[in-house]
Amino acid sequence: MKILTIGTSIITSHFCDAVQKSKYSTIIAVYSRDLEKARLFAKAYHSLAYDNLEEALKDSNIDTVYVASVNSLHYTHAKMALEANKNVILEKPTTHSAKEFSHLLEIAHQHKVVIIEAITTLFVPNYTWIKENLYRIGAIKSVFTAYHQYSSKYEAYLKHENPNIFTLTYSGGSLVDLNVYNLHFILSLFDTPKHSKYTPVLGYNGIDISGVAVLDYQSFIAIASASKSHHGSQSIIIEGELGTLEVSSAANTLRQVSIKTKDYELSSDFISTQNVLEYEVLVIEELIKESNIKEIQRLNNISLNVIDILSTIRKEANIIFEGDKDEALF
User: Fold this and answer.
1) CB–CB of 231/150 below 8 Å?
2) Mean pLDDT (the chain, rounded)
3) Same domain, 294 and 219
């Protein structure tokens, strides 16, 4: 992949560092609305810098665009890239709604390019280990996922400085930033629940600084808890009739996994690297290189399901983003 990145955030740095570990992919250019930011960021990767996205997308050397702009611009930037005949790696959360993401999938099909959500959960090796060994604990009776991480932007938020990730304007909040990993983990393993609900803790501007999603599968309940306002648990516990599967990290990394039953204990030999985006890059570049449309479609179906449920429970909890009004366009 010959990549243009959109955005200069920490997640973009991690992505670019992961690309540097690859034998097949290169960061060709960096786009930011602030040209000096773009130049400073691009310098570390010996890349071009742009503050005009339309101009950047005209570069024939670029075949893939990594969209890591603020959440509210994901749809717009991904659409521009697809229409410029570039593949798109789209940071989580994909868009405001399933309608928007479905529209992006249509555009990708029309232009014979692909779009994939950059959700680390589904690409780390321990996720596959979990899928292959989950049967060992028998019928599922309880699922609990937690991602509680004090945000580096929280103090600025408390000072009413309105960082992007804590505003309705830029489609921020705990559900779409952290709990999205928990939802991907749960929905990819167990598919669509019968009922789902989100109970948030709202900050002064109506953004959810923490919250709990409850997914009812009738035979068991799955809980997805996330917070950007305190340090706390980062773990997963799945209980079955025969035993328990435990993950000693949040759903975005799945660093260490073990299973305990009354008869034996089993642990994955794999411990994720510090930068889990390395797995994401390796898998996605392979999917694109091999034109593995079947697997890309499978991943996109998971993303559609997640954003559909995520946006539904968010709106039912009266967390309304400014970008939600654009759904009328579809």
Assistant:
1) yes
2) 96
3) no
The pLDDT tens digits of the residues spanning 297-326 come to 999 999 999 999 999 999 999 999 998 977
Q: Are residues 211 and 297 in the same domain?
A: no
At a CB cut-off of 8 Å and minimum separation 6, what does 36 contact? none
- Name, in order, each residue with C-beta under 8 angstroms of 33's C-beta and a sequence gap of 6 or more: 51
β-pair type (26-31, 2-6) = parallel
| Cβ–Cβ under 8 Å, residues 5 and 25 | no
Dist. CA 250–CA 145, nearest whole Å = 7
Query: For the segment 124-175, what is each residue's pLDDT rounded down to a tens digit?
Result: 999 999 999 999 999 999 999 999 999 999 999 999 999 999 999 999 999 9
Contacts for 73-79: CB closer than 8 Å, 24+ residues apart = 75/100, 75/103, 75/104, 75/323, 75/326, 77/6, 77/53, 78/104, 78/115, 79/103, 79/104, 79/107
Sheet holding 2-6, edge to edge: 48-50, 26-31, 2-6, 64-67, 87-91, 115-118
My answer on whether 143 and 254 are in the same domain is yes
Domain, as residue range, for 31: 2-121+278-329
What's the total number of domains in the chain?
2
Residue 253's identity, in one-letter code, is: T
pLDDT band of residue 46 (cuts 50, 70, 90) is very high
Which tens digit of pLDDT belongs to each residue from 183-207? Answer: 999 999 999 999 999 999 999 999 9
| Euclidean distance between CA atoms 37 and 7, whole angstroms | 9
Helices (H), the chain: 10-20, 35-43, 53-57, 74-83, 98-110, 125-133, 154-158, 174, 180-190, 277-289, 293-316
Phi, psi torsion values for 316, nearest 5 degrees = -65, -25
Own/partner contacts of 163-168, CB < 8 Å, gap of 24 or more, are 164/70, 164/71, 165/71, 165/228, 166/203, 166/205, 166/207, 166/209, 166/228, 167/205, 167/207, 168/205, 168/206, 168/207, 168/319, 168/320, 168/321, 168/322
